[in-house]
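Changelog-adjacent note: as of this version, every example in the card shows the full chain rather than a window. The one below runs 71 residues end to end.
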Amino acid sequence: VKGFHVIVTPSGRKTFYFRYYDVNRKNQRIKIGVFGNITCDKAREISKSFAGDLAKGIDPKKVKEDSKSQA
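Full-length structure tokens:
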């Protein structure tokens, strides 16, 4: 999936992210989760849904922030 990547810290912590450009061509990054709390397959699945939202013109970061504020 384009934009899906993992950052591994020196301590060995693996964090999944989705990176994309917003409508203003600004680089954006959304944290998906930490390995152990979420599997690689599940993180990739979430990343695919974010990519699908982008294709529809929906900013996944705004959707995630909106859902957090409603919770």
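Structural remarks: The CA atoms of residues 12 and 26 lie 29 Å apart.
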